[in-house]
Amino acid sequence: MKVTTERIPEAQIVLEVELDDERVAKSLNQAARRLSQRYRIPGFRKGKAPRAIVEQTLGADAVFEEAIERMIPNAYEQAIKDEGIEPIGPPEVENIDRDPFRFRARLPMPPEIDLGSYREIARVEEPVAVTDDDLADAVLEVRRRHAMLEPVERPVELNDRLKADVRAAIDGQQALDQPDAEFHVREGMVIGIPGVVDELVGLGLGEHTFTVDAPDDWDDEAVAGKTAVFTVTIKEIKKEILPDADDDLASEAGEFDTIDALRAKLREDLRTGKEERSREEHNEALVQAVLEGASIEFPPLLAQNEIEHMLHEVARSIGQDPRELVQSQDPKVIQMRERMREE
Q: Long-range contacts: 33-37, Cβ < 8 Å, 24+?
């Protein structure tokens, strides 16, 4: 048996196997015997008709087809064992010649990953620093968690806490509906879309209607660049009364004797958080740099298997037989397969 292999793109190997005449003749004789047992050959008992008679009666092609059903799998298994090849799926037999007998098959191999010159990638992790502004913001958050809320009868101001029904519509369709919502009116906060807080400041109790234009680059494409009509019914306005940043606040916030001890713990927590985020960003940058210089080849079989898996999921979600969807030649299904392949 002669075996040649050739590695080709997309993580595949082309295997060509040629069998000697003696082995082929033996396989053809065995195939003829099996056929003579399966079919009645006039003048011969089952399994006793010579190959020439079987070929004359049933046709040489029938004998050949019967032979290759076993001859090719057996030769293939021996070939990949002798060559030390470990494919990840069944072969795709592309060509079969009779004289001399040989066949050509395409084998899917494990994906090949080339990381490129990743050892040359060098990125320095940036040092972190906790600024006085960072600490001041952290202390402010502690003060806000321990703030008192006092009902007031005046227009809304920044940092007030409201109780309100908030509704919004875009193109006549309801986009937001939050009855009895409770929230602080903080500078820069987003309620559905940016800009709502600016409209709330200065309003009193009762129902109010106003419009806000969503940014053209807003994350939600269905909302980006459109005008939202808000209807807000303000039911309560409460003023936020912050405690002083003193030892009493430190004691109330935790087991701290002084405000300086609380600030020290906040600074430590801020530094730890920044260091963790810095490490994550550093690692993500390294991974991205490696990916940009890397290449991967995978056999079409893997892509096809993944597409079939995705089609099965789609079929189950719509209550359809997965096998029908996988085998469908509907143009829409074909287009769906192509989109999945590109992804």
A: 34/66, 35/62, 35/63, 35/66
Which DSSP symbol is given to 106? E
Q: Give 280-328 pLDDT, tens digit per residue.
A: 988 888 888 887 887 788 788 777 777 777 777 777 777 777 777 667 7
Level-2 CATH architecture, domain 2-110: 2-Layer Sandwich (3.30)
- Which amino acid belongs to residue 3? V
Identify the CATH assignment for 152-240 out of 3.40.50.2300, 1.20.1070.10, 3.40.50.720, 3.10.50.40: 3.10.50.40
In whole angstroms, give the CA distance from residue 263 to residue 130: 12
Amino acid at 75: A
Per 3-state DSSP, what percentage of the chain is helix, strand, and coil (rounded to 5)? 45, 25, 30
d(C-alpha 176, C-alpha 232), whole Å:
11
**Distance separating alpha carbons of residues 14 and 340, to the nearest angstrom:** 27
Contacts of 31 (CB under 8 A, 6+ apart): 63, 64, 66, 67, 70
pTM for this model (two decimals):
0.56
* Type and span of the H or E element at 107: strand 102-108
Alpha carbon dihedral 69, 70, 72, 77, in 10-degree steps, equals 140
Tell which phi-psi region holds residue 63, choosing left (phi > 0), alpha (psi between -120 and 50) or beta: alpha
CA distance 100 to 84: 25
User: How confident is the model over 207-223, as pLDDT tens digits?
Assistant: 999 999 999 999 888 88
